[in-house]
Amino acid sequence: MTPRRPGGYAADLAFVHDAGFQDFVERAGAWLLPRLRVPPGGLVVDLGCGSGRFARRLLDAGHSVVGVDQSPALLALARRRAPEAEFRRASFLDFEFPPCHAVTALGEVLNYRFDRRNALPALRALFRRARAALRPGGIFAFDLAGPGTAPSGAPSRGWRAGDGWAVLFEKEEDPAGRCLTRRITTFRRVGGAYRRSEEVHDLRLYPRAEVLYALAAAGFAVRALPGYGALRLPPGLTAYLARR
Known about the structure:
The protein is α/β, with parallel strands linked by helices. The protein has two domains: 11-147 and 205-243, Vaccinia Virus protein VP39 (Rossmann fold, 3-Layer(aba) Sandwich), CATH 3.40.50.150; 156-203, N-terminal domain of TfIIb. 27% of the residues lie in helices and 37% in strands. It contains six helices and 13 strands. The protein has a seven-stranded mixed beta sheet with strand order 3-2-1-4-5-13-10, with helices on both faces. The protein has a four-stranded antiparallel beta sheet with strand order 6-7-8-9, covered by helices on one side. The longest helix is centred in the first third of the chain and has 14 residues, at 23-36. The termini are far apart.
């Protein structure tokens, strides 16, 4: 079976991601929500919205939501979970921001190279477009992986399993190329058997100083954080709260 590259989060991995990997978004979102300071009914743009977990939380808090993702499978889950929100299939590099009160991108969203144009110039342009769309005082909140996300040397491996699914993953960092490759094999129970699928995800790694400089150049006042409150990010990752 040929791994999916550069696309990602087809039906089986989307199911597994929603079933077993949403603790991060739930905990990060709970801490972040009051700090966005969005007025009642205010619009939040959620980049890389995934299966709509954070969109659901935003809606329950009385906000409007536009969710953006490139995976049709994840968007289908999001529309079922948060039907009141608007969801669009798009690359964050092309998305035309509506005027909004906050922009979020939780879970290394801006590192992914499903859109192969993702590199520092494109990220700088994204920052400028997000700032232009934000109301005065609006927040752009996101986290990014940087160098040191994976141990040096041999690839690191792990696995996780739940009711009717299992996933094996391997990650390997290329320090010279400043990129991370994840190889993911999923097993999902379908009827009386398990279906196997594979994906390969490439991520561009951004050093913290580079991101801070780009945000400041776009006109943001920014704080770099080790995590979202009590939820600390793994080594190599940084959370950013950028205010217009």
